[in-house]
Amino acid sequence: MLSGPSGVGKGTVVAEVRRRHPGVWVSVSVTTRRRRPGEVDGVHYHFLTDDEFDRLVADDGLLEWAEYAGNRYGTPAAPVRERLAAGAPALLEIELQGARQVRARAPEAQLVFLAPPSWAELVTRLAGRGSEPPAVQERRLRIAQAELDAAGEFDVVVVNDDVARAADELVSLLAAPSSERSVGASE
């Protein structure tokens, strides 16, 4: 599992993993949030209505799910289970709440925390998005501080000071010997 605070660059690092290591399988999460410019349904996320998300929860179709900044995110369980059953690693991008759910359900999963090089850099990255009003940015910063405080709950911390290096480090963790290696992240 790959997790980390909003704005740390989880999506950027996962995109770099896909670019540099196309053989790595990355789970596509579901979300109720609106699409950002350039996002493609089924590639970046599966964008769902609240009712569709509720049905997945009711049917136990999510490995984990969480509400974050007023939107819900989750990992469809079936594709991950199929991948792991085939003996192949899975990369999940999930939020802190989701990482805790996965830890409870699959203690053998490797949880990786993506950290910013500094708090100031994280603030700059969040402000640089320009996709959210200041009140939402402030809420994300409060949540980000709490998430940074939880980094000790993770097996490995990777600092995102260089996207290519962080992507390669993540892939090397996926390649490490394990009977069921799952590295995940979320936004």
UniProtKB/TrEMBL annotation:
Residues that hold ATP according to the record: G4, P5, S6, G7, V8, G9, K10, G11
Subcellular location: Cytoplasm
Keywords, comma-separated and alphabetical: ATP-binding, Cytoplasm, Kinase, Nucleotide-binding, Transferase
GO molecular function per UniProt: ATP binding; GMP kinase activity
Top-level EC class as recorded in UniProt: transferase
A GO cellular component annotation in the UniProt record: cytosol
Domain Guanylate kinase-like: start-end pairs: 1-175
Reaction catalyzed: GMP + ATP = GDP + ADP
EC number: 2.7.4.8
Protein family: Belongs to the guanylate kinase family.
General function of this protein: Essential for recycling GMP and indirectly, cGMP.
Name of the protein in its database record: Guanylate kinase
Gene: gmk
